[in-house]
Give the backbone structure.
Amino acid sequence: MNKLIGNIRAVMVVSGLLTLTMLQAALSPDAAMASTFGAAIEGPHAEVVVRNWGVLIALMGGMLVYGAFRPHVRRMALAVAGLSKLAFIVLILAHGREFLAHAAGIAIAVDAVMVVLFAIYLAATPRTETCRSA
């Protein structure tokens, strides 16, 4: 556990950079849907949703990288990104087991490792107040 705490910056940077790769969905939604889910986008509304999904996931990655170098936001970055990843895992396992044969299967495995590491760090480190209300 001490090894994880001492290396959380590297864990967050690697996790963040991997998460940032979903910017692909914002730039090329058809390719992202095909590789991740083995499905095609149907209609302009779906394209907007997939592009937005890519941006939101990329923002999680950016937040992880930022939190790696800003300890005062580290816990929030880990908690928000971890919950986002956990939601993705649950949704795929509950509604899309057929997607496991595609990149989504790899994504949930990698995300699951990240969620566990984030949870261990959050449980092992004390919560400290960095800002006090007036």
